[in-house]
């Protein structure tokens, strides 16, 4: 691979970490095995609202093929792997005593990673809430912070000897705004929406305290999906809608977590849920800011919807990925600078990637130049931000494997590795070879 095809990484710090990311429900499968409890996504998959009626029952069968998948990571040469633990696999009812068979799966995975010299980055919550807790009100119940703390106590005790990197939540703003589906908004009232935001923030703070108290040398953050919210027209109404969404999408979680205050425009709506001392419970010292970034989002006004917004048309001049997401590396660079200015923490980019529906050609190879171009442009943009003083310390591609893409089922593919869902065979795409070449080239 000629080096001209590689991005500029000259401004990245020594010790910069290259990695890949996945999440439990999207890859594991084995949803009915070894005593795993149901999650809200198992239930949602029965609703008929997932594309092609796909479910997570088999997914990539990572539960049985994790050794092969760690082997793929070794070939890539990544230094780190971000995954999530399925709460209902280790605590089938969300609370109570551990399911040893579930704990033992993560033990084996972590051991395999450590033996391969790959640092495990454990995300505590990537959307698969135990259904038993949903039936007690889920994140709308203020007790959820205590449930989460119990679960995190188990994680710290069982894995804290080998895992030091912990993320409390993946994209709290996304699962709060879209709840389970990522396809439609389900909150029946703005009051419930604000209650959920506050409870998730309380759970975050409680988890940080548990990890600090129980894991020696823990390095902790929360992962935020930050996308600039842009009006889809110059009308005042669209501008106001974009500004309103920006507060919820980009500030409702990191502001209280990292600055100890809610954005001013949210305070009145949070007030009914606030108890004395809550902001101190939420704002615990963090080691880094986890950033997921894909694109800016275009917003228009819609009076009859929660928060008065909807997704608007993207300007015709903006290039799009095959799944219609804007390609805008400048916006990535701006986002990194905005995070640095507002929160001042070291940043790890824990997701960035390109979705398509690419299939093998006649020779069986999966050739994906669009993904390579995308990653190259975004890594260049990150390098640019670093050149302007942004303290960015790592970059993780979403994703190691094609996987269950939530409401889109298996129709959308984000992997560096193609998964044939009939045979479960893995085929590294050309972007896989490219990323491996980049890591080899920049590694001393
Ligand atoms: C992440 O969320 C998730 O953490 C991960 O599980 C998921 O598989 C991955 O992204 C890929 O989807 O339609 O152009 O306005 C991403 C959250 C929110 C990012 C919506 C893209 C819309 C782009 N996404 N956003 S656009």
Q: How many helix segments?
A: 16
Using DSSP, what is the number of strands? 13
Overall tally of structural domains: 1
So, the CATH homologous superfamily?
Glycosidases
CATH topology: TIM Barrel
Question: What CATH architecture do you see?
Answer: Alpha-Beta Barrel
Provide the CATH top-level class: Alpha Beta
* Alpha carbon gap, first and last residue: 18 Å
Fraction of residues in β-strands? 5-15%
Overall pLDDT: 96
> What percent of residues adopt helix (DSSP H or I)?
25-40%
Alpha-beta content class: alpha/beta
Give a list of the ligands: ligand GBH
What radius of gyration results from the CA coordinates? Answer: 21 Å
Global morphology:
globular
What does the largest sheet look like? 8 strands, parallel, barrel
Q: What is the H-and-E element order? A: EHHHEHHEHHEHHEEHHHHEEEHEHEEEH
- The low-confidence runs, each spanning 5 or more residues with pLDDT under 50, are none
Structure, explained:
Its EC number is 3.2.1.21. GO terms for molecular function: beta-glucosidase activity. The active site is at 171 (proton donor), 351 (nucleophile). The protein is of the alpha/beta class and 444 residues long. It has one domain (17-442): Glycosidases (TIM Barrel). The chain is built from 16 helices and 13 strands. The chain has helices at 24-27, 40-44, 62-76, 87-90, 100-115, 131-134, 144-159, 172-178, 190-214, 236-251, 254-259, 267-270, 278-282, 329-343, 369-387, 430-442, and strands at 17-21, 80-84, 119-123, 165-170, 219-225, 229-231, 288-292, 297-301, 309-311, 347-351, 392-398, 417-419, 426-428. An eight-stranded parallel barrel has the order 1-2-3-4-5-7-10-11, surrounded by five helices. A hairpin with a 7-residue loop joins strand 8 and strand 9 (309-311). Helix 3 (62-76) runs parallel beside helix 5, helix 7 (144-159) runs parallel beside helix 9 (190-214) and helix 8 runs antiparallel to helix 9 (190-214). The radius of gyration is 21 Å and the shape is globular. The two termini are 18 Å apart. Bound molecules: ligand GBH.
